[in-house]
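Z., the sequence and structure:
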Amino acid sequence: MLSVLITAFREAATVGQAIESFLPQLPAGAEILVICPDPATTTVVDGYAARYPVVRHVADPQRGKPAALNVGLKAAQGDVVVLSDGDVVVADDALVSLLAPFEDPQVGAVSGHPISASPRDVLLGYWSHLLTEGIHQMRLARDRAGQFLFCSGYLFAFRRALVDRVPGDALAEDAVISQLVAQQGYRVRYAPQARVLVRYPTTYRDWLRQKVRSAGGHAQAYVRKSPLRMRSAWLEMLNGTRLALRYPSSPREFLWTLLLFAARLHLWLLVFVNVQLLRRPLTALWQRVETTK
């Protein structure tokens, strides 16, 4: 059995699309659990649950995303769990590609492939295309080499038996779950055809908020101290600089690439100060991003 867990908060305008993108792809016996706390989003989810028995609302305890995921994991009945968000849309047949690697019993988790739905002809939209392409190339290379890779939180799947819960202060559940699976001797695979369309922030303030969460998750002790670590400011500079400089297709995009280097330096400084130095709590670091809705 398969359980699809969608976390959503104040996403009444987008959660319906997220649910609808999964419905035609569900195998027999699958379920969709939507974990959300706010009345507006809950009303939309309840409407889908009334029409589709496979959809169910799970009450969010409102203690942060890790707590919401743990409630969803407890309610999930599937042997394989798919995680996604209430503001993204999975492409047609994404589930088939995402689940295929589980035919190998040594595969414990599989990452989907985020695709930027933001316009490339604006600064932040260009950054989203460059970064998603860079991570895509990295995952492809590591998957072909049989190396560890971390999943994308926008769409990934894992064997339920390998993950009991997510740490309550985890900033990046995708990084934590990828580590938990790999540390038990299972392989994490990449499914490039399992595409998920993502709208990225349109303001620099929201961009920083989102990236501090995701990069900050890799700076937390239980990921940073792992021998499987594969993301840091140094590793990003070492492995990503050449690809980033090859990506621009015009002088304007080349300038935007140089600005991205400065923005990433700003980001990693914020991560060092807030996550490693001050050790600010989840409630302070997890700030809502509005411009992706």
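The chain has a mean pLDDT of 93. The radius of gyration is 18 Å.

Let me know what you think.
H.
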